[in-house]
Amino acid sequence: MRSALADSVAMAAAVLLIAVAAALFGSTSMQRVVAHAAVMLSAVLALQLFSGNSRIVSFGHAAFMAIGAYTVGILTLNAQLQHNALPQLPSFLAGLELSTWNALIIAAIVGAVAGVISGATLLRLSGSAAAIATLAFLIIVYTLLAAAREITRGSQPFYGVPRDAGLWVTALFAMLTLVITRTFRETSWGLAARAAADDEAGAIAVGINPRAAFFFPWVLSATLAAVAGGLLAQVLGAFTPHTFYFDLAFTLLVTLIVGGMGSSLGALAGLLATTVLIEVMRQVESAVSFFGLTQSALAIAMILVIWRRPEGLSGGLELNLLRRLGKQPAATVVPAEVKRANADVLRVAAVTKRYAGLVAVSDVSFEIAPDSITGIIGPNGAGKTTLVSMLAGHVPPTEGKIHLGETAVHETAAHRVVRAGLGRTFQNIRVFTRMTVLENVLSAARGVHSNVAAAEEAARRELARVGLLEQADALAGSLAYGMRRRVEIARALACEPTFLLLDEPAAGLNPAETRELMTLLAAVRKERGIGIVLVEHDLMFVMQLCERILVLDQGRLIADGTPAEVQSHPAVIAAYLGSRVAAKSLATSTPSLGAVVTESN
Amino acid sequence: MGKSVRRMSVVAGAIALALGGCGSKHDDSTIVIGVVTAQTGVLASYDQPSLAGFRMSIDEINARGGLGGKHPVKLLVRDTRSDTATTAAAAQELVDEGAKIMITPCDADPSIVAGQVTQPAGVPTLTFCGSSPILPGAVGDMMFTTYPTDNLQAAALAKHAYETGLRKVYLLVSPDTTYTSGLPEYFGKVFTNLGGTVVGKGSFSMNQPDFSVAVTTIRNLKEQPDLIMTAAYEPDFPAFVRQLRAAGVTTPVFGADALGTPTIAGLGELANGVVFTSAGCATPGSKLEAFNQQFNKVTGHLPSSAYEVNGYEIGLLLDAAVKSATSMSGPAIRDALDNLENFEAVTGTITYRGTQRIPVRSVALLRYEGGKAQCLQSVTPAASEIPAPL
């Protein structure tokens, strides 16, 4: 967070410097160019706030700018002029002659409302479907503006907007937007959106509701875009709905892509680069009286950027000034008292799951108390994965009930089950690859701690617990497989769960890593008294680590007991006879035996 | 380090170049005309031919010693890339560089934006072929349109329609542009004032080739119209006419100046009877015909539209205005231009006196027959017949 503030101050200072330079040394037309660039910067930043964090490309921001522009236009218009230009304007809008500031505030509110309404529908979709929906939104707004002739003059130019927003107002808003976008990505909303964009299931597993995670940045960026549109109205003075159509939507997107979609630095870099290029080429063009050079130079520059730097000029990274200057505070961990888990019990009562005709889990009942390690085993197709999905709230059971303490898991959304005390990891690791290791864990910790500092402290503590503190600032996607596994565990622990649900935690680990994992899990259980439930194919791992084992076969619970009891259970042996290797390992895996036998999956 | 210093100096140089608008001095008798027009982008197809005609007239004027015979013209041309914000910045640049007269693009909003710069600076401003009649009123007393405006064209068309005995009109509009929405409405107003009736009104979306709804509506009208008026152009107009005729509707269609293109002529028999407008009509022996030949001699090709001659006429108008202006100040030139009356241009006479800076000029009416545009007549509506801007 400190890093974000330092970055935003540095970038805002750069904008201020340019504005001051333009005011002192620039011609009137240069000041105009800078003011317009500042408005465009705000708009591109607004777009970055949504698209950069959610990874959903939006064409809809041009529409929010249009909404802001017409709002400010109508509200600030001189009453006489308004009467001539818009004789049929509804009376509650007529003759208001608001000041620029008041009009901009109302534009922000209107933008926010439009954001809420559009977001509620658009964000039910995800990925490219959502992107196409934003395109539809743009077309709808354009059509409405062109049709609402009494209010907007339709497709005719809307003119006469007082041009009060000059260099300072626009630069000031650009600076404010810079601070907002740069800090936003570090807030819990920003982390949630980035996590959900990176891996939806992973985000749910740390208690994030992916739809809600995109909703807030959408509304916030709609608000900022509406204000930017209002400022553009003031800078231009005349516009039509066409001003805010595809051309603008594409200009915003291209600028952001050239700069780097992932960061506010990218938005700044993209805008600076294109503005400087356009202005220089314009001078060259009029000096040699040959037109078309600007367009060609822009096209070539764009191709070069996409070819040489596919992540944009900024590489999608933030400035991270403090880290560059070595001013990042040393990663200290306060060995705070870890909270003991509460005494909630996980109750599974007569649970059945049917997929069409197939019965995946049939009438399974058991109870697990915290401060325990329980293994769930069974041959392939026994229903383990379905059971785990039901425990985590991802899949509702067809019949039966699952309770975690007071929470009815079977009728609760998965991300809320996490809050009730269930942390989980996945068979195929689901870390947020585009976020740093610390941010991965922080995204979970922010759900528990509302205080930023406390959350960061907790996240660092969990990283220290799994031995990854050194890698805190590395991108999770750059880590080796075994380390990612530990990031996932640290992330689950940061949810401060009563139960930790591990889906094949030892899959893909070498023997040394497997032993380390066993030690880690045993220690965590001892420290915090949480209940660990794991599904595992590595029977040696299960036998050694677990004190209780549940055996599933063809959806039924066929055995429940200590490792020793389960191994001698006739039904278990019968179930495993289908797989010779497993049957052999079942017979030979005793807690005292050191051999690692993994069933080939 | 060396690399980054070099990189920084390149950026610094670029910024310095961008910031430092070079203000060169011109001698006193020279007059600078700023031309902020779209030489690239969507408006280029209107602004490029306009500029070609304008350049030709300025070259001729300079050969005669300049505007009014004594003020050589220096043209400063800037490309707006059809971008409104760039138009404003470029207009400001040219005003800073001493432009005394400004020429703006063939579209209303960039012209308004440029006008917002030139109006307070007292620089008379003329749009190339922007035909929206709201333009002068939206900017102020420095802003002039030059091309036959939408309401003027509509008035000429309506008059012609009524005089040829047509009484009932169906209007087909598109809300997508000022031109496609406004022109038919102006037509309706004038036509009703003359005694005709509007029997129906339909709308279409531009660049959408399906006109089946509009065509079916027209075919099933209880009261069949004598003519259909629309300001649709390519690619909508060909699609509309094709579908209309395929449905067996033979009602004549009236359009506006955007129909004077090779594509529409290429419709052949389908376009038979389509009436449209133009700035002028190149009948053999006419001044326009002579201009076309001269243009061909100078540039190596015939004019592609009426925009060339309109650009050329702007040069002539300025020449006349400067000749009668009391001084070389912007307001003096403006006043002179505003007082021009019955000025003999290439396409006919042009009057600004008492017209709120919207020229009253003749509008040529043409009709397609067998893929060829035939001149019907030239109409100069009286100021009282032209409907007020919407």
Give the key terms.
heterodimer, A: 601 residues, alpha/beta, four-stranded antiparallel sheet, 25 helices, 57% helix, disordered C terminus, B: 390 residues, Rossmann fold, 2 domains, four-stranded parallel sheet, 15 strands, elongated
Give a description of the structure:
The complex is a heterodimer of chains A (601) and B (390). Chain A is an alpha/beta fold. Helix content of chain A is 57%, strand content 11%. The radius of gyration of chain A is 29 Å and the shape is elongated. The two termini of chain A are 44 Å apart. The relative contact order of chain A is 0.10. Helices cover 42% and strands 17% of the residues of chain B. In chain B, the strands form four sheets. In chain B, strands 2-1-3-4-5 form a five-stranded parallel β-sheet, sandwiched between helices. Chain B has a four-stranded parallel β-sheet with strand order 7-6-8-9, with helices on both faces. A three-stranded antiparallel β-sheet of chain B has the order 10-14-15. Chain B has two domains: 31-148 and 285-358, Response regulator (Rossmann fold); 151-278 and 365-385, Response regulator (Rossmann fold), CATH 3.40.50.2300.
